[in-house]
Amino acid sequence: MNAEYGPVLDIVAENPGTTLEEITELEADHGVIDTDIPDVLSVAVSNDDLLEFDDRYWVMRKGKYRFHRYDHPET
């Protein structure tokens, strides 16, 4: 799971507000081969790296995911 953790965070950072289904579809483009994405998302939420609300995920804006790198308009 550790190898998939970073790429899953990248997917969510590039696609804010994504659902589990959307993340699963995008994972192949990022070289993620683990099919246990729900567990990866759960760990990331527990680690405060992701925020989950209404079955959608957002990356927490810290470290390499600061606003300057992924500057999305507010919704």
Determine and state the CATH class.
Mainly Alpha
Q: For the record, what is the CATH homologous superfamily label? A: Winged helix-like DNA-binding domain superfamily/Winged helix DNA-binding domain
**Total number of helices:** 3
Helix-strand pattern: HEHHEE
Measured on Cα atoms, how large is the radius of gyration?
11 Å
Q: How many structural domains?
A: 1
Low-confidence stretches: none
Strand arrangement, largest sheet? 1-3-2
Percent of residues in β-strands: 5-15%
Identify the CATH architecture: Orthogonal Bundle
Which outline best applies?
globular
Query: Would you report the number of β strands?
Result: 3
Helix content: 40-55%
According to CATH, the fold-level topology is Arc Repressor Mutant, subunit A
Indicate the mean pLDDT: 82
Oligomerization category of the chains in this entry: single chain
Distance between the termini: 31 Å
Could you characterize what this model shows?
- The protein has 75 residues and is an alpha+beta fold.
- It has one domain: Arc Repressor Mutant, subunit A (Orthogonal Bundle).
- The protein is 40% helix and 13% strand.
- It has a three-stranded antiparallel β-sheet with strand order 1-3-2.
- Helix 1 crosses helix 3.
- The longest helix is centred in the first third of the chain and has 13 residues, at 2-14.
- It is globular, with a radius of gyration of 11 Å.
